[in-house]
# Entry
Amino acid sequence: MGIGVPVITDYEIWENNPEKVFGVSKKWADENPNTHIAVVKALIRAAKWLDDDHNANRPEAVKILSQSNYVGADYDVIANSMTGTFEYEKGDKRPVPDFNVFFRYNATYPYYSDAVWYLTQMRRWGQIAEAKSDSWYMDIARKVYRPDIYEKAAKELIAEGKIQASEFPDFDTENGFRPPQTEFIDGVTYDGTKPNDYLKQFKIGLKEDDKV
# Structure
């Protein structure tokens, strides 16, 4: 109806924040290891294609997504967030090339620190009722996020000549954690290896000794 106006994008709240995930059950992964790797390879290739040549393939992707058997929304609506600009209100269109990132900045890599951040928010707002140790956060992250599977898929793509090794993280040194992040709108630094220290920095929300 032309009434709603976006005030800010999530990219401006947390630059290069993690969003969508591909997840499967452990049972399915254990029973279908080759299919699992193949799907991850396909997702990595699709993500790279979307980001190639400064998002040059995005218009074609938008055409596909606008079909009724996929998203089915108008081309212009999908293109507003996919093709490198964002229209905050009618006529106020600004360049935001990284509003949607699929492969750049290791966007497809399943960082443990991303999982830990979501868990800290669940704790902060009461979805996790009891205080947890830092090691608990790490254990849960390692059960759900699987950089080992990602690495297998990536190395197959490298061996097949589909993607260059330089386009992936350095798997020999990667520990699954991003460096401390300072790109939040609140200015609070997040270190995924120290979730409880991160939570202590907030005036609002549950702390170590609080219970729901």
Remarks:
- The radius of gyration is 19 Å.
- The beta strands are 85-89, 92-95.
- The chain has two domains: 18-108, 110-146+175-212.
